[in-house]
Amino acid sequence: xxxxxxxGNVFRYLVGRGLCAEDDQLTATDQLVGKNANLLxxxxxxxxxxxxxxxxxxxxxxxxADGSPKEDFGEEWQIYQLLCRQGPLxxxxxxxxxxxxxxxxxxxxxRYLDPYEDLGDxxxxxxxxxxxxxxxxxxxxxxLHASTFEQDAFRQQLTxxxxxxxxxxxxxxxxxxxxxxxxxxxxxxVSQDALKFYRLYQRSRDLSEALRSLEADHRACCLIHNDLxxxxxxxxxxxxxxxxxxxxxxxxxxxxxxxxxVVRIIDWEQCLWGDPALDVGALVAEYLxxxxxxxxxxxxxxxxxALRLASVPLEQLQPSLYTFLQAYLAQFPKILAAxxxxxxxxxxxxxxxxxxxxxxxxxxxxxxxxxxIAMLQVARSLLCDPATSLATVFGHRTISPASxxxxxxxxxxxxxxxxxxxxxxxQEPHEPTQTCPAEQTSPADExxxxxxxxxxxxxxxxxIRVEPLLIAHPHYAPxxxxxxxxxxxxxxxxxxxxxLPAEQRETYVLHQLRNYLYDIYFSGDxxxxxxxxxxxxxxxxxxxxxxxxxxxxxxKAANSGSGFIDHGWxxxxxxxxxxxxxxxxxxxxxxPDVDLSLAxxxxxxxxxxxxxxxxxxxxxxxxxxxxxxCLAGERYIAxxxxxxxxxxxxxxxxxxxxxxxxxxxxxxxxxxDLNRSAVPFRLSILTDPQAYHRYDAARLELGCRHYAHxxxxxxxxxxxxxxxxxxxxxxxxxxxxxxIGLGESEGDGDDFGLRxxxxxxxxxxxxxxxxxxxxxxxxxxFKQNGxxxxxxxxxxxxxxxxxxxxxxQPLQEATATP
Length: 818
What we know:
Helix content is 37%, strand content 17%. The strands form seven sheets. Strands 20-21-23-24-22-26-25 form a seven-stranded antiparallel beta sheet, covered by helices on one side. A five-stranded antiparallel beta sheet has the order 1-2-3-5-4, with helices on one face. Strands 18-17-16-19 form a four-stranded antiparallel beta sheet.
């Protein structure tokens, strides 16, 4: 069984590997942000010469179900040895400093590089893009590519030593299967909102053809990193002292006076023998992502206005983009001889890089919204019209390496160094953003000491502050209205709101205020965003794609569902791989012998042994067996064997402020009973066991006609659940018992909490800051929306029989397991 890396055992591990002594002192162990289990370990050694400090980066890939790591860092370790042994590159100039590799447990250890910071963090913190940095980055990447370019002996040794997954010269890469060859299994690992990405892509045939063309044009000719992003580049803190030279130059030209490189490229575990334009395009895509992420994109703001108001305009990035590629070409002149169209190839691969960045966000279940849609649109332009896009991206129709002038780089005015310590690099954990306002206090949820809606509303009307630049509450992090992020304590705050048309500005502020209210009073999620509010967690290597694998496995085991039949799919193709079906613009491939036969059995139309599905033809309508659950952001959603509640009927909603163990019990009880009774439902619980401070940690949604049945289950199971429940419940829901709230919605598309928070937000914006006037405005706005202020959990046409209480104890006296 491989060793499982944890913050509690890493020091003993280093001692066992001979990298530390028993009498050394462990002074710090910090978890790093990244896809792997990464630890920064600081150890002090005492000797007759005094005290010395050593810092290590220890990383291990996430573990699979059988306990073995998902990835092997052996290739990354060997690539450093191979380059140092065979290539002309001095490792201190460009690569990280590997110390040891444990093949049995797939653990790689690097020396921490103190004078470096993460390039992505540098760009984010300064919003400055010096030409020196772009030049050094272009030279470093070109030097790496040139050192192995068309060296067949190196490729053969790479293949024999590392057994890499390099693409043979006569074989095309596959850029499309993860976008086009989808199966019903996608619902188990892709969040619901991210399905829109696949629908948008699958509608664009020209984008698919552009990727097919890129596959055909791909040429593997040198060692490439294959995972280049700014967070995989380290920038030396003394980069300002570096002086550009006439190109091409030796890699010694990238070294500073201390012998270290201006930049270092790290995390080589995905390296392969491939096309250099892929790496270059990936970094171009990184610059474009900075621009796209700075846009105030919203359904409330016109795209033309958003482009004009970008906090990092494309014009600000174009000099660095142009200089980066120009320096690369000047350092590696052979590349243009081999690929006269190299700049257009880079532009196309940049489009692929943007698509890859969207897929990365989907993999980690990050929201898919307007910025990601814009990324896809830009990617389409880069891939389908590279000639036009080249001029738009780089600000020039052609890029000539002959015109590279180091004097221009040297004469660029220096930007001032940031005061204080460097922002931690990807080698270190990211520090939380400090926030204002001046009256910072403990982030305790003061109003939640009470259980009534009245006390929560009193807190809201007295403490919510709406100002031109921010929305604030004295006990929670304020919201910057420009970019929706906490406001830094230092530095000027830019505002672009005044440049928006009045109607768009008002709608934008309304939605920001709605979300702020929702996070405080409905979900209770705002409290954990306060710096230092959440206790530090011990790092355990048990996450994959941000999911706690152990906890998610327990959720799956608690879900008794066997899947459901989803009707309304149309057969679009029948072929050797099975059948392709489509619904709402999403195309999936199914195995008719499995998916359709099982669907017939579940529907009662066939015996289990009757495994032959009906003959399929294009245009046929079919019902398909779907998994028993899906993901939506931070939630695992169990779906009943009878499907989810009907979209066009009122829904009863139950909110549970429950702990993680209680959520597993809730999943077991309700999925078993509701499925046995063939009740359509959705039951969602959080996938992170550390996130159960939320007031809506679990949600049950079913048709109002099944309300009485669910009530019976709840009354029966409440004694089992009670020790896991806690107050308060979400604002606007009716408190039925300790930690349980009830609500009602009109059906799918009617978000109970957001709708009511928007009503309150609109009332606050229409009123003065006076508490009495605010309360009167809120009551009036509820009435205008057909809702009873005294019973805000009901719809206008509600027929719920909610006259029952689960707990006779006074709720404020009840205790619960935290």
